[in-house]
């Protein structure tokens, strides 16, 4: 299984020179709940394990760093909200100088959203912040949690700068991550950029980030919550956009066809799009396709959308586009290019 491949290659990270010699780094271990912390109850699986419970179950993690535990929440990740991202980013910022790396356990369903959000909030990040979890609870014998945790703590001790998701046989940049399987242990894919590390039977492939310390780390944790994603479908009526404007939404991510197509025929969305943009709503276009992204210069529908004021999300995932729009609307002077 992927987790076995992952575990088999972990010891080679140092010997192959892919990661630096791993000393006993100080790691802050943050837990939020999710499948990895679930145990069986009369009401089904519930996220009840603490960080110390996890370390007791996987004692070898303590060989990868000097670990301090802080339990943040014990929730299903479906209940994560932007205020959580802001709180967690602020906590990382408050402890930034005291630790060499951070590991955050999280449910898989919204992990890509959290990873993307933290990527924008943690500006000029010079240390590793690594999210991980599991498809099967740690408390069960067939869990993938152990290998995911080992990989996450290894990366957290590596000094690689950035927000990452360590899961299955990959380490993925936070704003390129997307969940593609509901059950497979290789749950996440790196979209439109090669994974930072990828393990398979042929060895290890790498796409490591620049190690140079960019300096000036800071946390910009404000988020505009009145952002929605709208999937363009055949027959979608334009009044849904008008309704969103009436309800006070400040941003809309349009998940469009292919390279960026929207309905321009019988259910023409363009007039409603123009009204929304005139009312001050920012609209960003991403593709419903997993790979290659959008190019609003290719087809008339995309060109017309761009002329109406729709911004291209380029190769961004839906998760990255939503969280970046939330962040940039709340921090208009700080928006990254």
TrEMBL record:
Keywords: Hydrolase
CDD domains for the chain: L-asparaginase_I (cd08963)
Keyword Hydrolase attributed: yes
GO molecular function terms listed in the Swiss-Prot or TrEMBL record: asparaginase activity
Chain ranges of the L-asparaginase N-terminal domain: 26-205
Binding of substrate, residues: 77, 108-109
Enzyme Commission identifier(s): 3.5.1.1
Superkingdom of source: Bacteria
One GO biological process term: amino acid metabolic process
Name listed for the protein in its UniProt record: asparaginase
Protein source organism: Acidaminococcus intestini (strain RyC-MR95)
């Amino acid at each position: 299984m992927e987790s076995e491949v992952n575990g088999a290659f972990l010891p080679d990270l140092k010997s192959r020179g892919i990661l630096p010699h791993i000393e006993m780094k100080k790691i802050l271990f943050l837990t939020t709940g999710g499948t990895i912390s679930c145990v069986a109850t009369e009401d089904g699986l519930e996220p009840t394990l603490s960080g110390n419970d996890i370390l007791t179950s996987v004692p070898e993690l303590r060989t990868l760093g000097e670990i301090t535990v802080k339990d943040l929440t014990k929730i299903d990740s479906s209940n994560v909200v932007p205020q959580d991202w802001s709180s967690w980013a602020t906590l990382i910022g408050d402890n930034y100088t005291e630790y060499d790396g951070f590991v955050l356990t999280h449910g898989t369903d919204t992990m890509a959203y959290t990873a993307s959000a933290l990527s924008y909030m943690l500006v000029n990040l010079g240390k590793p912040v690594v999210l991980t979890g599991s498809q099967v609870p740690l408390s069960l014998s067939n869990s993938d949690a152990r290998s995911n945790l080992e990989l996450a703590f290894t990366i957290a001790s590596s000094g690689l700068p950035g927000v990452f998701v360590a899961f299955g046989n990959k380490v993925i940049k936070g704003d390129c991550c997307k969940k593609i399987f509901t059950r497979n242990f290789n749950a996440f894919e790196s979209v439109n950029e090669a994974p930072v590390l990828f393990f398979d039977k042929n060895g290890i492939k790498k796409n490591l980030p620049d190690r140079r310390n960019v300096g000036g780390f800071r946390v910009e944790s404000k988020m505009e919550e009145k952002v929605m994603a709208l999937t363009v479908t055949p027959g979608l009526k334009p009044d849904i956009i008008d309704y969103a404007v009436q309800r006070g939404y400040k941003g809309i991510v349009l998940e469009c066809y292919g390279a960026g197509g929207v309905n321009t025929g019988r259910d023409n969305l363009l007039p409603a799009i123009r009204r929304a943009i005139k009312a001050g709503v920012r609209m960003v276009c991403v593709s419903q396709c997993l790979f290659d992204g959008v190019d609003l210069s290719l087809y008339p529908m995309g060109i017309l959308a761009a002329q109406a004021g729709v911004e291209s999300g380029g190769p961004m995932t839906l998760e990255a586009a939503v969280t970046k729009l939330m962040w940039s609307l709340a921090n208009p002077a700080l928006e990254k290019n």
